[in-house]
Amino acid sequence: MISSPDVTAEDVVSCAAHAFPGMDFPDLLNDYRIVRNTWLLSLAILLYDHALTLSLEFDYAWRRRFDWTRLPFWVNRYWPLVQLLFGSLGMSNAGNVATRTFNIPVSYDGNTEHTASVVSHWLVISSRNVKLDMHDDRCRYWLVSLPYISIPTCSCMSAILASRIYAMYGCNRQLLKIMVVTFGLQVISDTVVGGVVFDRLGVMPLPPSYTGCIPSNIQSWFWVYWVPKLVFQTGVFAITAFKFVQELLDTTKTPHIMTVLLRDSALYFICSCSLVIANLYIWKTKPSLFLAAIPITTALNSIMGCRMLYNIQEAFQEMSTFCVSQARISPLPSQSALSRSVAMSSLSTQSRIDEDKP
Fold this sequence. Notes:
By secondary structure, this protein is mainly alpha-helical. It has a single domain (9-347), classed as Rhopdopsin 7-helix transmembrane proteins. The protein has eleven helices and six strands.
């Protein structure tokens, strides 16, 4: 083991203190393990859900002819696997290796002295921030790419939500245009703000026995990344809640497919907003867990998006058994077909009510 005469153990401890005030280096490593395990756990959960819903996937997509309306499903189903696999590899194998090593005495429980070997190339300490010029830039590239690799999933999830609201409001094209513009702004804001936030991150050095990346230079204002998501999700829920109130005030029976749309939209809002608030809280109060809730959000959004499509497919098939029209209905409706099915179900229900009147 060669110790560096230029960089001392006190420098590295000072680096951790500047990047994460109030935390000891062992605590920082423990939080790093939590983050790394969270990525692996989220990947395992998503794979488990894929195994559970494999039969539904075959019924929904594989047994039918190709249709471009399935594209959001395919992306939302499989791209998160790429995201989580990419993130898990980054946390486990990206490497954080530079050219110099030295020993740092670290106190555990205030009693036992343990020597942790930490790697570094040049470590520059200042009163405001800490910069690490690493020989291996893989961690840096991995961190900067995180907000961009989520763009396909975010875009397709927005398309799924827009199509559902479009169906709930009976193919209202004006509303569809507003939704497309709104979700487009969300994707752009996520990309721009995410690029600014993650581009400012630095990388902490790790002992040779550890692999992966610990972000540093986390600014106090980074939590604003989640504000646009929270605003847009609240707007979607407001539109859904307005339709729900309309259905409650209507004297006719709400079609089952409309009930499914309203129920799943409300559940999605509750889960999605809970995840956004959790991320916002962690980024604001616990910077050392900066990346902990991101994989959970990715996995659950994928699961919820696919489940919503499965539920609509099931409700659509049930509705087709008593629909007024005897025309053939495609098992996988497009946006306009799905909207027409809601209207047809409403007409069917209204006709039965009129026939029952004395």
